[in-house]
Amino acid sequence: MIVDTHCHLADAKFRDDVEAVIARATDAGVAQIISVGAIGPIENDRMTVEIAERHKNIFAAVGVHPHDAKDCTSERIAQLRDLTASKKVVAIGESGLDFHYMHSPREAQEASLRAHLALAKELDLPIVIHCRDAENRLVEIVRETGIPARGGIIHCFTGNSNAAREFLALGFCISFSGIITFKNSAAIREAATIVPDDGVMVETDSPYLAPEPYRGKRNEPAYVTRTLEMLANLRRVDAATLGARVIANAARVFRLAPG
User: Fold this and answer.
1) Is the pTM of this model over 0.90?
2) CA within 20 to 30 Å of 41's CA: 11, 79, 81, 255, which one?
3) 172 CB contacts (<8 Å, ≥6 apart)?
4) Cis bond before residue 211 (omega within 30° of 0)
5) Confidence at residue 81, expressed as pLDDT on a 0 to 100 scale
6) For the segment 86-106, what is each residue's pLDDT rounded down to a tens digit?
């Protein structure tokens, strides 16, 4: 059994068969799913919450992706706050910084991140963080503002061991995606070995970043088992044992009932 701690079930790539995707995940042993809105307009977050409300073991996170940070107005933050009235919303995000693609100006990304950190603190929810080529600045901002009391998750970690240590020291959990199955992910694989048991998570980020041997195809939550197997191999532990540890970590951070 395993939990997919980050995917995007409301993504257009799942629009025609989301129920079948969820069923395959269940058949593969995925006990719980955290579906993240954040990408695109607020309707994506609303659809994410609606999907979670239809399924007992699916939960939602709502936010504004750093790519769309230029659209993160006070009105948008108010809309996110309204969505958290649903008991199925268990986190704020994904927010963060992406200085690789720079789809939104740096100033807008930083302002959006601060707004999300404040909202997570206000609502006593954990924050889900996206970070690409911006580790140092992200650490600086979180040191200034403080991490929400419920902590947070660095999703789809793409840094090295030094970055992992910085994030762990701040109180974040670190989530690994199918990227660790790629041959060119040596630095990320090394980082995966130094994260303590109580700070490790696993995800698909589907429909993106399908792990080997599905690379290049649409990813889906069922494939989280491939990433779990690789992560367990890197950490030299049994996959079932690691899966149980990840479920316990997700239950703690997101306040989920185990299993």
Assistant:
1) yes
2) 255
3) 129, 147, 151, 152, 153, 154, 199
4) no
5) 98
6) 999 999 999 999 999 999 999
